[in-house]
Design goal:
Elements: H1 5-17, H2 29-39, E1 43-47, H3 55-62, E2 70-75, H4 85-88, E3 93-96, H5 102-112
Parallel strand pairs: 1-2, 2-3
Length: 113
């Protein structure tokens, strides 16, 4: 879930090539929440900066549900730029966009289990 179509395409291809089933995409926070409710994914990858809200806020909204998916926040910035906002959002992990890989996602999922 990212507002940049090129990044969504890259992430989609990377995840499918690694064997993940990509069940939805969204370009803003509102669409992201709707997609999570509609598709019930196990994992979501969401950008910190969205046009209508932040990935932190989307993560908080999603985690109101007891069966929330694993949330992995991504950004072009480093995790240190966000301080404690990552953990306080309920997200299970953070990756800079340059570090996004199937292995990095798998490690976060494994830690969250």
């Amino acid at each position: 879930m990212d507002d940049h179509d090129g990044f969504r395409r890259r992430a989609h291809s990377l995840l499918e090539a690694a064997g993940y089933d990509v069940v939805g995409e969204a370009e803003d926070g509102k669409s992201a929440v709707v997609a999570v409710v509609e598709h019930h994914p196990d994992v979501i990858v969401i950008d910190v900066q969205l046009p209508d809200t932040s990935g932190f806020d989307v993560s908080r909204l999603i985690h109101r549900d007891r069966e929330a998916p694993v949330v992995i926040l991504v950004s072009s910035r480093d995790a240190s730029d966000y301080g404690g906002r990552i953990t306080s959002s309920g997200a299970q992990g953070f990756l800079s966009k340059s570090e996004l890989s199937a292995d990095a996602i798998a490690k976060i999922i494994q830690r969250a289990s």
